[in-house]
Amino acid sequence: MKRHLISAADLTRDDALLILDTADELAKISERSIKKLPTLRGRTVVNLFFEDSTRTRISFEAAAKRLSADVINFSAKGSSVSKGESLKDTALTLEAMGADAVVIRHGASGAPHRLAGWVRGSVVNAGDGTHEHPTQALLDAFTMRRRLGPLDGRRVTIVGDVLHSRVARSNVLLLATLGAEVTLVAPPTLFPVQVGSWPCEVSYDLDAVLPKSDVVMMLRVQRERMNAAFFPTEREYSRRYGLDRDRVARMPEHAIVMHPGPMNRGMEIAAEVADSPRSTIVEQVANGVTARMAVLYLLLGGAELGGEI
Amino acid sequence: MRRERWCSSLAEAISRALPHAQGGARAVLEQPDINRALIRISHEILERTKGGENVVLLGIPTRGVHLARRLAAHIKQFEGRSVPVGSLDVTMYRDDLRLRPARALGRTELPADGIDGKVVVLVDDVLYSGRTVRAALDALNDLGRPQAVQLAALVDRGHRELPIRPDYVGKNLPTSKSENVKVYLEENDGSDAVLLLKGDER
Asked: Which residues in chain A touch residue B93, judged by CB atoms under 8 angstroms apart?
């Protein structure tokens, strides 16, 4: 494995399987009464969050704490960033404090990549702009594997705001590495220009794809990033691309429904679908802690110059 | 016939091990010896624990788990009692994690009844520095509160670095630190053998 986790494309098939297998073993920790391992004792993990987040930040914090690492939480609000400090100066401050790993979320695509050049520790991308969110892809793959078994040849359909979604890109890259067949479904206005070069199929018709999907992953419509009219009305979007009870009935018996959260209930997913037993949405949150423990262990648990395995 | 086949696979095991050893390899225990040692240990466990009541066998992956299963099979044969068997991975508790790249985890599987109030017998293939056992004791601490913990090892090669001693030993094997002891088991390696490898001076 490389020293940093910036993109899902950094992971080879063996790396990805090692992370998922490690997560499988670590999952048992969350069922024990003492949910703690001494593995990263004395290591410092900094959560550097320039964008709002609940589940990702809490998830990384819980993961690091279960491995006994010291956690420093940093959010842009109420820090020197609001006084105009640059990312580089913030990075040098962290460096001086001896951070062994920096978990970064930033509104600008590529920020983790820049940060990796400035700090000595490992950098983990927890979402950068509209670029990538590799640990989300790992926890999604982990959730699918727990429900459906090995992912080779499984058909995964990702529906919604692909243009603004870092989750979609990371999932496409990771799932292709793991041998799954991915289809992206969205209105033409919500596809990025280069989607043709991604290792996946593209469709505009959700109803045609549903009957042959093992997994249907709904993406949040990211209104905060929408500065143009991408679709006429919310009702029309919901009618053509929202997952309701009738559409779920057209999916195969074993198929599961996923959503990275936070959800717009009634928009991309109906409330009764989100709460149905076929939905893995709550499971995904629990699996997030486990998958991130696996990532932190594999990046930090070994020799100081870990990475050159 | 069977004997012949076994011998050829032992030869294979030795030749597989040879490239890692400079001075050659010597079989210290062969399949019948290993079997006799495990039968004796099973009897000793039954003797020490008054019939094996309340005993849980926990193997340390990988080969310790196979040994634990074999001990349980012998105990079942002699006493008719099914002793619960589990596995205990100690990777996350090791003190030498930072000396090597992060490694893959083994499996931890406890019997359904857990280990609270039980007599836990840890089973490992080779007892050397004692650091693996120390890690196992720490791991047990997070999993429950056994009534007592005992230790069984197929080979004790000495050179302890911690105040730890085994309760049941298959064979005491005086070694030098430059040598290497390798246990091969049918379940994992296709044949049973304990080899002493003359390693390079470290």
From this structure: 37-39
Q: CB-based contact (8 Å) between B105 and chain A?
A: yes
Of A34, A36, A303, the CB nearest to B101: A303
Q: Which of A43, A298, A299, A304 would you mutate first to test chain B, the one with the most B CBs within 10 A?
A: A298
State yes or no: ipTM above 0.85: no
SS (H, E, C) chain B: CHHHHHHHHHHHHHHHHHHHCCCCEEEEEEHHHHHHHHHHHHHHHHHHCCCCCCEEEEECCCHHHHHHHHHHHHHHHHHCCCCCEEECCCHHHCCCHHHCCCCCCCCCECCCCCCCCCEEEEEEEEECCCHHHHHHHHHHHHHCCCCEEEEEEEEECCCCCCCCCCCEEEEECCCCCCEEEEEECHHHHCCCEEEEEECCCC
A134-280 matches A8-132+285-300 in CATH topology = yes
CATH class (in words) of the domain with range A8-132+285-300: alpha beta
pTM, two decimals, is 0.90
Class of CATH domain B2-24+32-198:
alpha beta
pLDDT by residue for chain A (309 residues), tens digit each? 789 999 999 999 999 999 999 999 999 888 888 899 999 999 999 999 999 888 999 999 999 999 999 999 988 777 777 778 888 998 888 888 889 999 999 999 999 999 999 999 999 999 999 999 999 999 999 999 999 999 999 999 999 999 999 999 999 999 999 999 999 999 999 999 999 999 999 999 999 999 999 999 999 999 888 877 899 999 999 999 999 999 999 999 999 999 998 999 999 999 999 999 999 999 999 999 999 999 999 999 887 654 443
Question: Which chain A residue's Cα is nearest to B94?
Answer: A39
